[in-house]
Design goal:
The protein is of the alpha/beta class and 257 residues long. Strand 5, helix 6 and strand 6 form a beta-alpha-beta unit. Helix 6 runs parallel beside helix 7. The chain is globular. The structure holds zinc ion. The site of zinc ion has 5 residues, from loops.
């Protein structure tokens, strides 16, 4: 009976938010300004239930529900500003978050950026800084090894990417969680390739995969390797942020106008 009631209730929604750099850098379209970021984090902590991957992986495995409108804050690329600027703000407001790390670039300049910042701040954190981040309560996840487009790689190279990441994580003794953010948010389109990739994820104990797309996710997940994330920008404050969390497709249409 309980199962039937659960099935009839509307499925709780999870919105995953995607940040890159937190910086005053108008040349980087993905950068969110620190003062805007602080306002966003304050708003999220006041209005939503916040989770990270470790909560979701266990709840999903047990098919447990989430409170309605749960939010997960994530960062891609692990650039230096995430530790210097974002982490202190998250800590003040008690907001948990996950940082997805391209493991070949630890301590080096990111070289895949589509719009390199002239201020040269695309420095990826080194393993010591990542450990400090994780001691401060930030979760670490996988973002491939060399940040190549996973929709374009043959299976042997996908395996190589995952194995190299795992080797770096093991040898540096980094506390990574089994969550993977696809570089550029891209997932293989071909069904057979996708199934092969999921097999590889299972082999490497990666339990969830995050793409990019302006949608909420049903939870428990229909497909844990096809989780949508919504890109946050400087425009998302107060009502606009609420719209992004609760109606991301509408927020996207508005942004495109
Ligand atoms: Zn990335």
């Amino acid at each position: 009976m309980r199962n039937l009631v659960d099935r009839l209730r509307p499925s709780p929604r999870l919105t995953v938010l995607l940040y890159h750099r937190i910086a005053d850098d108008p040349s980087d379209p993905l950068a969110v300004k620190p003062r805007v970021f602080e306002r966003q984090i304050q708003y999220l902590s006041a209005n939503y239930h916040l989770v990270v991957a470790r909560d979701l992986i266990s709840r999903n495995a047990e098919r447990k529900r989430l409170p309605r409108h749960t939010v997960w804050v994530t960062f891609d690329d692990a650039t230096a500003d995430v530790k210097e600027v974002a982490a202190p703000i998250l800590s003040v407001h008690g907001v948990p978050a996950t940082v997805f790390v391209p493991t070949a670039s630890l301590g080096r300049t990111a070289n895949w950026a589509m719009s390199p910042s002239p201020s040269g701040q695309m420095q990826v954190l080194d393993s010591e800084s990542l450990k400090q981040l994780s001691h401060g309560g930030i979760e670490l996840g996988y973002h491939s090894h060399t940040h190549r487009d996973f929709s374009q790689l043959p299976t042997a190279e996908l395996r190589e990417e995952l194995r190299n990441s795992r080797d770096v994580v093991r040898s540096a003794d980094l506390p990574f969680i089994g969550a993977f953010a696809y570089p550029f948010g891209r997932v293989p389109r071909d069904r057979r390739q996708r199934l092969e990739l999921i097999e590889l994820f299972r082999e490497f104990e990666i339990h969830i995969g995050l793409r990019v797309g302006s949608r909420c996710n049903r939870f428990p997940f229909d497909d844990p390797y096809w989780i949508y994330r919504c890109q946050v920008s400087n425009d998302h404050v107060d009502d606009r942020l609420r719209e992004l969390v609760t109606k991301p497709r509408r927020a996207r249409r508005r942004a495109a106008q």
